[in-house]
């Protein structure tokens, strides 16, 4: 819920194309291309959304390999007001991956997003909890909390109308690894062109125990 581009819960239908490329600390990398479709529900501020990812893994040795990732289906509810917005989202991650591009565990994801708003600026904090609920033999166990703080969101730079910059700090506590702490810093450029919202994000891991070495993301959401 960083801005309208990340809060499509208020519109009836939306489609999103999402891409990221992530370089890891160990020299491996991966890319994701994801199609998302969401539709509003009978209750104002509520929606359902499906996420269909296609992943490419780049190992240290050998050729890259690609396949369908784990499909996610979720329900979200957004409550907006002039000074403060908050939203709740629940997702189920289905073991649909092919060609070994992702673990075949079934996961539950929960999100709680808060947004404090002032004239020309806002602060956003996203809480995320991911937990494996079904882990077949050979699959990885997932359990972590992730927090992401974004500020000052929209008023950082406004040299071009409708184009904004924000900085963020992203961190993760891995419960499945004894509470290991990993983090990253980054920035985001975002704006709207009519009914299409665009964002470009770049982030870098902090220290040797980082979330990733670097990560580049592009997000395009269109109202239907």
Domain count: the total is 1
* Tally of strands: 13
CATH C-level: Mainly Beta
The largest sheet has its strands arranged as 1-2-3-5-6-7-8-9-10-11-12-13
Q: What is the first-to-last residue Cα distance? A: 19 Å
Q: Helices and strands, in N-to-C order?
A: EEEEEEEEEEEEE
Which structural class do you get from the secondary structure elements?
mainly beta
Low-confidence stretches: 1-11
The radius of gyration over CA amounts to 18 Å
Q: Major sheet: size, sense and barrel closure?
A: 12 strands, antiparallel, barrel
Helix content: under 10%
CATH 2nd-level architecture = Beta Barrel
Proportion of strand residues: over 45%
CATH superfamily: Autotransporter beta-domain
Outline type: globular
Provide the residue-averaged pLDDT. Answer: 90
Examine the coordinates and then state which fold CATH places here, giving the name of the CATH topology.
Lipocalin
What does this molecule look like?
It contains no helices and 13 strands. Helix content is 0%, strand content 62%. The chain has a 12-stranded antiparallel β-barrel with strand order 1-2-3-5-6-7-8-9-10-11-12-13. The two termini are 19 Å apart. Strand 8 (121-134) and strand 9 (143-151) form a beta hairpin. The chain is mainly beta and 224 residues long.
Task: Give the arrangement of secondary structure elements.
Layout: E1 13-23, E2 29-40, E3 46-58, E4 65-68, E5 72-79, E6 84-93, E7 106-118, E8 121-134, E9 143-151, E10 163-174, E11 180-193, E12 196-205, E13 214-223
Antiparallel strand pairs: 1-2, 1-13, 2-3, 3-4, 3-5, 5-6, 6-7, 7-8, 8-9, 9-10, 10-11, 11-12, 12-13
């Amino acid at each position: 819920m960083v801005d309208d581009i990340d809060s499509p819960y208020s519109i009836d239908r939306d489609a999103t194309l999402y891409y990221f490329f992530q370089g890891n600390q160990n020299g491996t990398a991966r890319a994701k291309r994801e199609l998302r479709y969401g539709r509003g529900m009978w209750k104002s501020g509520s929606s359902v959304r499906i996420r269909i990812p296609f992943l490419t893994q780049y190992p240290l040795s050998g050729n890259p390999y690609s396949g369908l990732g784990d499909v996610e289906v979720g329900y979200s509810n957004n409550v907006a007001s002039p000074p403060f917005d908050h939203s709740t989202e629940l997702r189920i991650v289905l073991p649909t991956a092919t060609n070994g591009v992702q673990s075949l565990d079934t996961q539950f994801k929960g999100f709680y997003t808060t947004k404090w708003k002032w004239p020309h600026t806002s602060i956003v904090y996203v809480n995320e909890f991911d937990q494996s609920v079904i882990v077949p033999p050979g699959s990885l166990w997932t359990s972590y909390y992730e927090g992401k703080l974004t500020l000052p969101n929209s008023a950082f730079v406004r040299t071009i109308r409708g184009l904004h910059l924000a900085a963020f700090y992203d961190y993760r506590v891995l419960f499945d690894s004894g509470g290991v702490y990993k983090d990253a810093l980054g920035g985001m450029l975002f704006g709207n062109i009519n009914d299409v919202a665009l964002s470009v994000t770049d982030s870098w891991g902090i220290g040797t125990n980082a979330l990733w070495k670097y990560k580049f993301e592009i997000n395009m959401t269109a109202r239907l």
